[in-house]
Write a structure and sequence with these properties.
Elements lengths: L1 E2 L20 E2 L6 E4 L2 E4 L4 E4 L8 E3 L6 E2 L11 E3 L6 E2 L11 E3 L6 E2 L12 E5 L3 E2 L10 E5 L1
Parallel strand pairs: 1-2, 5-7, 6-8, 7-9, 9-11, 10-12, 11-13, 12-14
Antiparallel strand pairs: 3-4, 4-5
Length: 150
């Protein structure tokens, strides 16, 4: 999918296309950018959408990111995600229905939204800091064991 310079607003669900492998954005677009086929806001501080059929099973989120947006990785084949320090917010349903097996959440994350890791049936281990605010339904229907670090 290619987003032209004239697009300044994208509604939720716009990228719920199962065959989508990459998202590109015109460099002149004032609101959005893409990096390695993944959609971000122009400042590269919010990850908006990871394509549902991107063939990579592992993804390293770029440093400088502050927010993993609502539904950013929902229903993608990603199995491993590296979340860098600096990310402060993991949005609602951000990783729901993925094949994540484990994840380490850095101390910079202060909020994990509702259903952020819901229905991740292979998610066994999550490591996070005690100061992180976790919505009580963030891990619903996932067989996860939370491990807290100080």
């Amino acid at each position: 999918m290619s987003i032209p310079a004239t697009v300044t607003d994208i509604h939720e669900g716009a990228f719920a296309i199962k065959s989508l492998e990459a998202i590109t954005v015109a460099t002149e677009n004032p609101c959005f950018a893409s990096k390695d086929g993944v959609l971000f806001d122009k400042s590269l501080q919010t990850l908006i959408a990871y394509p549902r059929s991107k063939p990579d099973a592992q993804y390293t989120i770029p440093s400088g990111l502050r927010v993993i947006g609502d539904k950013a990785f929902t229903e993608t084949p990603v199995r491993s995600v590296s979340i860098p320090r600096g990310v402060g917010d993991i949005g609602e349903y951000a990783f729901a229905h993925t094949k994540l097996a484990e994840v380490s959440i850095p101390s910079s994350v202060s909020k994990i939204g509702t259903h952020a890791f819901a229905f991740c049936t292979q998610l066994i281990s999550v490591e996070l800091f005690r100061i992180t605010k976790v919505h009580r339904e963030a891990f619903i229907a996932s067989p996860v064991r939370l491990r807290y670090r100080d």
